[in-house]
Amino acid sequence: MLKAIRRYGRGRLRGVSLTVLVGASFGLLLFVSMSLVLALAVFANAQNTFSLLNDKAVLITDSLERQVRNHLDLASSAVVHLKTMLDDGPVGIGASETLRPILLAAMNANPAIDVLVVTDLQKEEYGVYRAASGKLWPYQRNRVPKVAERYVLPELSANSPATWGPLLDSDGVSYANVTVPIVREGQLSGYLTAAVSLEELGRTAAALDDGADTTVFIIADGDEIIAHSDLDALPRRDNSMPRLPQKLTELGDPVLARFDSSRRIDNFKRAEKAGVQVSDVELEDWDAPDYVAITKVIAGYGPGVWTVGQYSVASSLSREIERLFGSAMVGFASILVTLVLAVLLARRTSRPLAEIARRARHIGALDFDSVDPLPHSRILELDRVYSAFNAMVVGLKAMNSYVPRSLFNKLMRLGVDQASASERDLTLVFTDIVGFTTLSESLSAAETAELLNGHFSLLVAAVEAEGGTVDKFIGDGMLAFWGAPDERPDHAPAALRACLRMAEAVHEANREAEESGRPVLRMRFGIHTGRVVVGNVGALDRWNYTVVGDPVNLCERLQSLGREVAPQDEAVILASEDALARISLDGIEAVSAPLTMVQRLGEHVLRGRSVQVTVWRVSAGVDPLWVGMPRASVEKAG
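Structure (tokenized):
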């Protein structure tokens, strides 16, 4: 049958290669379309380039502004929140012990704040400051005079909002300070001030610096530089790096020194609407490069305004324009290789069909495990084909899970006509788990299914290893047979070898189960050889390849007898004399083998039967390699 399947469809008409057809079509299409698109693209890219430059300018300054506001607004939010707790309460020096825990908690919650101080109307003050080690220290002004250099009290009334004072310098570090009035019964009763170090803004500027041609800076109070990302590149004084804050003209940065004389660039209208100014800065040296500065003014953090921005070498901006013209040249060059691209695209287009054919060959060989699902395709027709193919594979896999693969392979190899019902001599094996009903009462449905699935996988592997066919699973039992659909003279030895392999697999599984605290299983096996009807049995669209006949019932009764013979043994293998007569053990006919291998249990009237049956027990410890056919049977088969 497989040969017929492989022969099917070999004849074909000669035609044009899909690669040639698609390549020629795409080549012409690309040549015409790319010429038109390129002209539009160059114009659109020019517009997009300047649009992106505008967006970049806004993005840079917005990022800097956001960092500044986030840093400083933490302090203003903290004092505004604390004000609600201090209003209408005592704030004098006598209240310092009461308010100190509140100030300490606020400092712990706001690591950006370096000083938090309460001042009454008599200018008596107390507060908490953060040491260089990070530890918080409560203080009074006359005890830590250096702390007082970090803040200053502005003129406030009872209704004044949070007010920022001028920047102050203490030990080479700049501090911003914000103050809110404390009100009692509608009258001003004191002040709450927070001082914030600006060192973090310096680190922020350095982090936002994206290259050697770029410098990020922050200017406070109009002309005082408080953050500069490239201090180490500036001229050194006394062999030391410049310290901030410094005036624009005193820092030694030639670009910022000429910042006030910069000229606005008119091509950044959208950036101007967002409050961003893009300027051209020319240095005094005629051979020095020009620079482009991107800045934004921020108000509300002191008497003066703040300016955040970045300057870079003007050539870095012109590179964007150069790339625009470079892309146009690349576009013209790409037209020359359209035919090559078309051929490659054609090959890629035909590749999915080749992939379908490759996977179809695996299906023809019933190798479903090697067939992975086809991925979705953006091409609608291909995606539909892929979906249909995947659905077919899923259906075949699902069918294969209900039809034993070994049986399916045999029928495909021998022909479907071999599935017709016929009478044959077969060897049957029936298995069962002792006490499974009681065991399952202590397990959930999922645990029961997991236990049975693992158990049956061991049994099926042993059956298929010996060329047998699994007929069906009945509860916790299994029925298998040997000798159909493919005839074989050694069906009885193969069945016994399978039972021995199953017993060995169950023993190993029980050993692992004991180590992990899971339940162990005790197995009973029945082996019988007899003449049965085997083949397709059923009606309409419901057919089963199965065995029917009295030997099937006898085999099941043999298995049941095992519970009485040795109820506590891990594995009991009982065989009828009809089966054992066709088997040899280590070269000796099984019925004459030593007691260590087989034991005659005598005549038994099995349940539901009136005729006595001679029953033999085969030791589960017999090596499967010893099991074969008696010499007479071998000669007869030969």
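The two ends are 28 Å apart (CA to CA). Residues 1-12 have pLDDT under 50 and may be disordered.
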